[in-house]
Amino acid sequence: MDNNFTIYNSLTRKKEPFKPLHPPFVGLYVCGPTVYSDPHLGHARPAVTFDMLYRYLTHLEYKVRYVRNITDVGHLENDADEGEDKIEKKARLEHLEPMEVVQKYINSFQKNMEELNTLHPSIEPRASGHIIEQQELIREILEKGYAYEVNGSVYFDVLKYSKKFKYGKLSGRVLEELQANTRTLEGQEEKRNPFDFALWKKATPEHLMRWSSPWSEGSPGWHLECSAMSTKYLGEVFDIHGGGMDLLFPHHECEIAQSTAAKGKESVRYWMHNNMITINGQKMARSLGNFITLEQFFSGDHPLLKQAYSPMTIRFFLLQAHYRSTIDFSNEALQAAEKGFQKLMKATETLDKLKPSLASSIDISSLRKNCYEAMDDDLSSSVLLSYLFEGVKYINSVSDGTEKLSSNDLESLKSLFNVFVFDILGLKDETAGRCDEKLTDDLMKIIIDLRQDAKNKKEWAASDKIREELKNAGIILKDLKDGAEWERE
RNA sequence: GGUCGGUUAACCGAGUGGCUAGGUAGCGGUCUGCAAAACCGUUUACGGCGGUUCGAAUCCGCCACCGACCUCCA
């Protein structure tokens, strides 16, 4: 299975040719959300990025197993926050069972992801369903001597691990610096070193989410679930691990340490990290309280939003930038994305109506080549879009009669747009199927005929009135040389 | 403080040692009864100061500013 696909590997900090371990199979693991509140724009970034990766790999005819976890075992809010975790805190607030909270936000996450037209992962494992596997991993790490038990809790021994392996290779951390810079927080006196991290945490009496274990009644540590579930579903070594850049340290660093300690080898071959969404130059994050939920974007119901933005506008907005650069939120940028997206969609409609000529005046094969090169270059969706807009110009020019396409090239252009716009970028036309299309078409035909009569009689006031009233109803009328076209606003 | 990354026109956002990125907005034109759309043309750039080079926004050095991570985070 040949390809020219290159991926920027966070581990080596270089673009590398993508060669799967066992072609045609590809194992892809992506860190999913912690489900304790509604998803915001930040959650859409990795979802759309890795959805595009999944779609592209599938297009390249790989058999991809795409695993995205759901973190439903509450992680400790912070080390000082003894025993209380995010999910339980929320549960108390809303007087719900922890698992009720989990279910509620899984539902909203999946709803929003569907609206963004992301494909369902092959497996969406939940941390709470893999306690046994996590305990098994802890046991392995203990057996290998890289963890220690204190008062029913188990901690990873970073210092001992670093004597044989390199801790910090992904994030570029140096242990001495970590030692000097790690904040001293309360509730850490059990650890041998402040940079050690919990594998199993003994539950305090008020802690609701708890499971029995050889060490204590408690819950698994912060970084364990991804190691356990990726191993279970993708094997000890797999191809791609993705997630947000903010997870690089400590989360992914700890994953590497856990897997290496347990299995003696690294599990991930390519690490991919998407960058953050910023708002007023700062990271959008739940913990910072500066987030806008996806529902709020879709409804426009937020003080910072000047209007509603459709799911596809959001998706297009994200795809306009490369996944490794930050994107700053602004109404202006979103409005520009909305216009651009609509222009692209209109062109795909026009494309379906184009008539072939005997010969072409446009080179479609080089356009195709450019599109593939853009995707092959570490998923350069912004570059791909620039080529697709070149295609849009071709389409409109052919429609205007200033350029020509042979029937072969026309078919080629259609398939190009289908593949890249819909299959790979995962965009879709949001106007389709909004109401009874047939009836609307018939009614519009009648109205346009009536207006044409008025125009023929040079009754401009009447014809303008019709056009004006239609505009108020959300329908734009465009007069052509012969007849008229209409479309929704 | 440590580590890493960024600074491109009105806004967003690519890229490259010499050749138009693209989108949105603006301006002019074609078309049109008018308008819209489309098409054609077009105005504002590469944070600052040095250096390398025939040539740098692109490479190197210094400086300034911004951000991410170092604590749960997509």
Q: Would you kindly provide a written description of the structure presented here, covering whatever features stand out?
A:
- The chain is of the alpha/beta class.
- The chain folds into three domains: 6-274, Rossmann fold, CATH 3.40.50; 279-424, Orthogonal Bundle (Isoleucyl-tRNA Synthetase, Domain 1), CATH 1.10.730; 437-488, no CATH class.
- It has helices at residues 41-59, 86-94, 98-115, 131-143, 158-164, 175-181, 224-234, 248-263, 294-299, 311-319, 331-353, 364-376, 381-400, 407-424, 437-456, 460-472, and strands spanning 6-9, 14-17, 25-30, 63-68, 147-150, 153-156, 198-202, 218-220, 238-244, 268-274, 277-279, 282-283, 327-329, 475-479, 484-488.
- Strands 4-3-9-10 form a four-stranded parallel β-sheet, sandwiched between helices.
- The longest helix has 23 residues, at 331-353.
- The chain is elongated and about 95 Å long.
- It starts with 5 loop residues before the first strand and ends with a strand.
- The structure holds one RNA strand of 74 nucleotides.
CATH architecture of the largest domain: 3-Layer(aba) Sandwich
What do we call the CATH homologous superfamily of the largest domain?
HUPs
Low-confidence stretches: 76-83
Distance between the first and last residues' Cα = 45 Å
Q: What is the CA-atom radius of gyration, in angstroms?
A: 27 Å
Q: Strands, helices and their partners?
A:
Blueprint: E1 6-9, E2 14-17, E3 25-30, H1 41-59, E4 63-68, H2 86-94, H3 98-115, H4 131-143, E5 147-150, E6 153-156, H5 158-164, H6 175-181, E7 198-202, E8 218-220, H7 224-234, E9 238-244, H8 248-263, E10 268-274, E11 277-279, E12 282-283, H9 294-299, H10 311-319, E13 327-329, H11 331-353, H12 364-376, H13 381-400, H14 407-424, H15 437-456, H16 460-472, E14 475-479, E15 484-488
Helix pairs in contact: 1-10, 2-3, 4-7, 4-8, 10-11, 11-13, 12-13, 12-14, 15-16
The structure holds one RNA strand of 74 nucleotides.
